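Hi R.,

Here's the chain you asked about this morning:
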Amino acid sequence: QTEGFELDGQGSALHKASGVRWYRCSAGQRFANGQCIGNPLLLNQDDAQKYARDFSAASGRTWRLPTVDEMQSITVKHCKSPALNPNVFPSIRIDNYWTSTRSFNGPGLGCTTYTYSGNAFCRELVDTPRPFMLVLD
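And here is the predicted structure, written out as tokens:
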């Protein structure tokens, strides 16, 4: 069941309500035969954003980290472990995923989304290595 998403054969999923196109695997993995292959990258928030810029330059398409609001828009509130639809996002890791959103709590803090519950947390140290997802502009 992939309700609310339009999937393509290239590993991306269009979230119909928001119009945001998501890569179905964590950054560092590749999508093949309906699965995510490889290990997710674990980077700090600045390096994750640099990875998105470098990936964009290599692919010719503008990829970026999602905002905290975009991550919240794809969480399924009544689901736990994971709070993202595994039919859309196979092999999603249970972890705090970086977003591009900086915290209003201080310059050294950023916002993550915990994929177990879907809760946002905006007191994550920006130097902490975390997995992240990519969206297309």
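One quick note: The CA atoms of residues 63 and 136 lie 5 Å apart.

Cheers,
M.
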